[in-house]
Design goal:
Layout: E1 7-9, E2 12-15, E3 19-24, E4 34-39, E5 42-47, E6 58-63, E7 66-69, E8 72-74, H1 102-109, H2 111-121, H3 133-136, H4 139-156, E9 164-167, E10 170-173, H5 180-211, H6 223-230, H7 232-242
Antiparallel strand pairs: 1-8, 2-7, 3-6, 4-5, 9-10
């Protein structure tokens, strides 16, 4: 199934003949998993054979030298081999890897940051659009900039919290009155950040469904928006689990992809 999120503007290839190279497995992987290897300056996808591999095991795989032309090549799906057509788990499966798992903590404390990490895995920009490598590599950083700017401006234009005092048997708000312009700016700021999160998370969920050929089950045509609106934390956590294999790669809160980098793959 072709997908606009499954390709980036890069290059297509003309086959010049296969050769066999040896690749060292970066981790213990089950049959069918895929990972990237590099040979002669070219990155190619390696599929783990039926018997599986253990970390450090060297396997012989075919390598197809390519001549690049101005087309587009598919994005490698990486180490994650989810079953097509279905979610790995439900929207409420947040505690699948434990209540203190990094992806859950990030989804609970700063869901927009986790959203930025999943956008990077999906090779999308901070605005939720398909992106070239030079753009999606900075997606997580730009998402953090959005969060920082929002909180800094929120502190600058914050309005006083209500202070209720009981007067003559009734509670009255005696907090200082904020200027009208400050209230407007504060409301616009909160609305803008909320809309940004809603729109980008909706586009991200739609892209993940398209990548894994998952059909909408409820609210046809607006399921992605409903999930993002009513349960953003659970939604972004589910997307994080869908686009990674936490049994193979540890989750990290502060990396671009939210994953611990695998050891480099050596080829000879």
């Amino acid at each position: 199934m072709s997908s606009k999120y499954g390709a980036v503007p890069s290059a297509s290839a003309v086959v010049t003949g296969d050769i066999m190279v040896e690749v060292e497995a970066p981790a213990t992987l089950s049959a069918g998993y895929k990972f990237d290897a590099m040979y002669d300056g070219q990155t190619f996808s390696v599929t783990v054979p039926p018997a599986g591999v253990t970390k450090g095991q060297r396997i012989a795989v075919p390598f197809r030298p390519l001549i690049l032309t101005a087309e587009a090549t598919p994005i490698n799906s990486g180490n994650n081999m989810s079953l097509l057509g279905q979610w790995k788990d439900g929207l409420c499966g947040c505690c699948k890897f434990g209540c203190c798992h990094a992806h859950l903590c990030c989804a609970w404390c700063c869901p927009v940051a986790l959203m930025g990490q999943v956008l990077t895995r999906m090779k999308m920009s901070w605005l939720g659009n398909a992106a070239v490598e030079t753009e999606y590599r900075s997606t997580f950083r730009k998402t953090l900039y959005v969060i920082i700017v929002y909180f800094v401006l929120g502190l600058i234009f914050a309005t006083p919290s209500p202070e209720l005092t009981k007067i003559n048997g009734a509670y009255v708000d005696v907090s200082p009155t904020a200027p009208t312009w400050k209230i407007i700016v504060n409301n616009v700021l909160n609305l803008s950040f909320g809309l940004y999160t809603l729109i980008v998370l909706t586009k991200l969920r739609a892209a993940v469904r398209e990548r894994y050929s998952i059909q909408e089950e409820h609210c046809a045509g607006c399921e992605d928006c409903c999930c993002a609106f009513w349960c953003g934390c659970c939604t972004v956590a589910q997307l994080a689990r869908q686009t990674a294999d936490y049994d193979v790669q540890r989750a990290k809160c502060c990396t671009d992809t939210g994953l611990e980098p695998l050891p480099p793959v050596l080829t000879v």
